[in-house]
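Entry 14. Two folds queued back to back today. First construct below, sequence then structure tokens.
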Amino acid sequence: MSTLFDPLRVGDIDVATRIVMAPLTRNRAPGRLPNALMARYYAQRADPATGAGLIISEATQICPEGQGYGDTPGIHSPEQVAGWRLTTDAVHAVGGRIVCQLWHVGRISHVDVQPGGAAPVSSTARAAAGKTWVRGAFVPCSPPRALRTEEVPGIVAAYAHAARCAMDAGFDGVEVHSANGYLLDQFLRDNLNDRTDEWGGSIENRTRLFSEVVHAVASAAGAGRTGVRLSPVNPGNDAGQDSHPQALYGRAVERIAALNLAYLHVIEGQTGGARDIAPFDYAALRKAFGSGAWMVNNGYDRTMALDAVASGGADLVAFGKPFIGNPDLGRRLRENLPLVTADRATYYGGTETGYTDYPAAA
């Protein structure tokens, strides 16, 4: 019987424990460039003896148009590759493993962070009734424009380019962010995709961009170093609910199953909220995915995580906010030590305060 603290081979990546640090947007990359402060933050959490067996980086935009929030890093330019190398080197120096989460926000953006102040792009021209973080404050999302049919293949190419950049930056792998109402999710869900071309309408058409992106990324980074993140019923970022989420996400996973990817990272329910917000059979999705590692996420505490791995319900468990105030979360889980509650006021933006200044347990 496996435990949360046992090693695992995840595709082509060997991890020392089943504890995963989930992606956490922290907005500390001025100029969209990863930096030494970020490297220190990740290194604090990377030692598998005290922190995570695997780190998933904060969401990282694949191209300038993919940005939605201020001071988030990219992975599409030589300068960004060099900046991320500071983090990957620091993580590897303490024996850690880290993958880069590849991100295009679609309509969850603002003209202030778009090239030339242009409108964000999406599956649709309908604006999101949500907010994004720009200039140190949360502001309403700007109305998007729908991508033209001939532009969509360029999104696939941008993901592949970003995957190659991530591997050049020394990451152990990549994760395709297809969750939480961002661009790929905007194409998947019928309540967000109102297209009438080959990228919209039927489930087959709506899963096409997702499938092509994952295939292209796996080709660029290696299937055994590629993971995917999905959130089948999370309504966040004004995503609402697809009319038939089980059929939709089941088909999406079927289309990538033959790749034998490293893992599938699934958010159960609503991010940071109810795990049972809408019915969904996650076991069926796992069966469709096949032999890759199954990573679960959303509100797991120590008892839930231990039970999930011991029962075979999960191969890996991802923890988000607990890693903010507890750089040694792995040790605290192993020894059942109390957890620090992080200061929410310092989640987004700023300096080392509320970022690299949380101490390890005595």
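Second construct, same run, same settings:
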Amino acid sequence: MKKAFIQLHIAILLAGFTAILGKLILLNEGYLVWYRLLISAVVLGAIIYFGKESIRIPRKNRWQFIGIGAIIALHWVSFYGSIKYSNVSVSVTCLSALGFFTAIFEPLIRKRKIDIVEVSLGLLAIAGIYLIFNFYPEYKTGIIFGIISAMLASIFPILNKPLLNSFSSKVVTFYEMGGGFLALCIILPFYLYFFPAEYFIPTISDWFWLFILAIGCTVFAFILSLESLRKLTPFTTNLSYNLEPVYSIIMAFIIFNEGKYLGSGFFYGFSLILLAVSLQMMRVYRANVKI
């Protein structure tokens, strides 16, 4: 359990840095994710090939991976869209709706009883987002993108957990990155019709940050996150990811000086979100649950 929590929180720290990279990479969010998935799939394919690990899986599972990959791709597009239409601090805070959506979707998908405590903690985080929404109406589009991103992000850990009993983390990540890339190839033209891009070939600076994003913050972080999911519940994993805003906001304050654009409303809302995270982590440790 301890090792799983360490793996999870390293993955969360890397995930927090992806928001910073989303600001540094000037590509449209659709193209940004397209390149991220492509590079990640190629790098993972090379790792698996040279590691002489088999990537053969049953056909029915291939469609599962492609479907989950599509969800991941859309989650990332909406996440980076949130950053482009608001800022790093607001967009990552919206991800705190993860706990609420997981508390609803996991029981529905796994066909178990809804946990009222989980729903209550999730609603506490939603209340924090609502406060931010009221104080910053100019970020309305970015906040909507952020909530869609959180909803999509709550689903794929639930779907991934049973697959990890049969396949390695590398193989799961490879197929999901590849599946997400293929899905985005189909979706991207429609998305760009509504949210057009100024350019589609990355600059030298874009390429540099894209490789850091794909290799460090995608391949390595995804594998760590999936390994931790073998021992932890999807709800605990997703609610723990609510710490991602902490890391991202600290980095955004230091790198982009975003603190000067945010007033008391943001910090009131963020305090409620931190309270929800803290209460769930205390709940998990006290219960000493082993999954």
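Quick look at the second one. The chain has one domain: 2-287. Residues 133 and 171 are 39 Å apart (CA to CA).
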